[in-house]
Write a structure and sequence with these properties.
single chain; 10 helices; 5-stranded mixed β-barrel; 2 domains; alpha/beta; Spore Coat Polysaccharide Biosynthesis Protein SpsA, Chain A
């Protein structure tokens, strides 16, 4: 295995870009703008989600080739969580202009530092259960992106009719043959279209039809291919990116006024909508490595064991009477008692208490 990884490094100039912005809203009050979800020890009491993400990819690339895209508010905490990461590998965006601007900005920075790179764009706050299979899938994606001049994404095989994810429609599923890799990972297939988050009846159709995958938000591409895609599909973005590139060293200074002015010209648009949906050579690898984006408190039910009342309890002890199916989390250790409470989320911190139904957990940001 070690020899295989060394060969992989030698043959590919691979860089990992971990997206670590976020507003800290979906897991409030545990998360805040200064310490959003990826900086929490939400799953492992010893490691934050971003530490788990970096640890997951270090067999694929040296630490010098791992970059974090974040903002000035969260950069200090990112540095604290990842002391082994070179400081210059933390890319600070001067303003939030959505993922197209973020990935374009990171692409020109990485291309300058590592010419000819193949970039792997990942989220900082996802859970991957089968990490070995995940890495093998990334290796196949990198090989494909290099060989086919494609933008490759990873689509998760749906296990239920989820309405909170976007979907990818693929060609006839029978065309997703096994690759030649020993891990028997499906070969990449053509993406027909990107689908918005569906209503429940449509999500059920997607699941039954077998032609749709969950959109994981992971992308693999050569920087040259992505920048060319910007030139054709988002020409205004591309012009701004070229102006930023001309700033040279100053493009890394988030306080540079010219950089701020150029960044202000970016239209807020996602990489999915601006590039991926229009790019003619978008491929997807159907993937099944135990992925969970932990998008809200109810998602923890797929991660943690429950007690006899089917309740998740973390950081405290509970007394439940006529109560069941709850999620109870405390950072102070205070005992929490529940009476006649079902399907609720209760989160207690030194400064705030959240009580909401599981149904409303996606709307926590409305009360912040």
């Amino acid at each position: 295995m070690a020899e295989k990884i060394l060969n992989f490094r030698a043959k590919n100039s691979t860089t990992i870009l971990i997206m670590a912005g976020g507003s800290g809203e979906r897991f409030w009050p545990l998360s805040t703008k200064e310490r959003p979800k990826q900086l929490l020890r939400l799953i492992d009491p010893e490691k934050s989600l971003i530490q788990m993400t970096v640890g997951r990819v270090t067999p694929l690339a040296p630490i010098s080739n791992i970059y974090i895209a974040t903002n000035a508010i969260q950069a200090p905490a990112v540095k604290e969580e990842l002391p082994e990461l070179p400081e210059e590998n933390i890319i600070i965006e001067p303003a939030f202009k959505d993922t197209a601007a973020a990935i374009g900005f990171a692409s020109i920075i990485i291309e300058r530092a590592n010419p000819g790179s193949t970039m792997v764009v990942l989220a900082s706050d996802h859970l991957i259960k089968d990490e070995a299979k995940f890495r093998s899938t990334i290796e196949l994606a990198v090989e494909t992106a290099n060989r086919e001049e494609a933008i490759v994404t990873l689509g998760i095989k749906p296990s239920y009719a989820e309405t909170g994810y976007g979907y990818l429609e693929i060609e006839n599923p029978s065309s997703a043959q096994q690759s030649t890799r020993e891990e028997q990972i499906p070969a990449p297939v053509k993406v027909i279209r990107f689908c918005e988050k569906p209503a429940a009846p449509l999500a059920a159709q997607y699941l039954k039809g077998g032609r749709h995958l969950w959109n994981s938000g992971m992308f693999i591409f050569k920087t040259s291919v992505m920048l060319d895609a910007f030139r054709h599909l988002l020409p205004n973005h591309h012009q701004s990116l070229m102006k930023i590139r001309d700033l040279k060293d100053e493009m890394r200074n988030p306080n540079n006024q010219e950089l701020k002015n150029i960044f202000a010209t970016f239209e807020k648009i996602s990489i999915d909508y601006g590039i991926m949906e229009q790019f003619k050579n978008t491929l997807v690898i159907p993937s099944d490595f135990g992925w969970n984006d932990i998008g809200s408190y109810p998602a923890l039910e797929e991660v943690f064991e429950v007690n006899v009342n089917n309740t998740i309890v973390k950081g405290t002890t509970t007394k439940e009477l006529k109560s069941a199916n709850n999620i109870v989390i405390s950072t102070t250790g205070k005992k929490i008692s529940l009476l006649g409470v079902n399907n609720m989320v209760v989160v207690e911190t030194p400064t705030d208490i959240l009580i909401c139904s599981k149904e409303e957990a996606q709307n926590i940001k409305k009360i912040i």
